[in-house]
Amino acid sequence: MEKEICRISIANNWLGDEYIFYENGTIKRIYDNHSMSSNVTEWLEPGQISKLNKDKLVKSCPEELKEQVMHILDYP
């Protein structure tokens, strides 16, 4: 398994929404659809993440990892 860079949560209510970034450039998202459907996992490409969520992820990213995460996200 690839080494994890960081985990960033952008949840804005009681439903979880966490993104995990890996050194090989892959992105895993673990989120809750609703109370009966939690911890749904999906692997994402940068193009599948909205600009709004990319903004939230970069804003919430630890400063020392921001450049690496922005590169993975293909963030301008």
What's a concise summary of this model?
With 76 residues, the chain is α+β, with helices and mostly antiparallel strands.
Overview of this protein structure:
A hairpin with a 4-residue loop joins β2 and β3. The protein is globular, with a radius of gyration of 12 Å. It has helices at residues 51-60, 66-73, and strands spanning 4-9, 17-22, 27-31, 40-44. The chain has one domain. With 76 residues, the chain is of the alpha+beta class. The chain has 2 helices and 4 strands. Strands 1-2-3-4 form a 4-stranded antiparallel β-sheet, with no helix packed on it. 9% of the residues are buried.
Which short descriptors sum up this protein?
76 residues; four-stranded antiparallel sheet; globular
Series of H and E elements: EEEEHH
Strand order of the largest sheet: 1-2-3-4
What is the quaternary state of this protein?
A: single chain
SSE-based structural type: alpha+beta
Taking Cα atoms only, what radius of gyration do you get, to the nearest Å?
A: 12 Å
The main β sheet shows up as:
4 strands, antiparallel
Q: Distance between the terminal alpha carbons, to the nearest Å? A: 28 Å
Number of strands: 4
Q: Please state the overall shape, judged from the principal axes of the Cα atoms.
A: globular
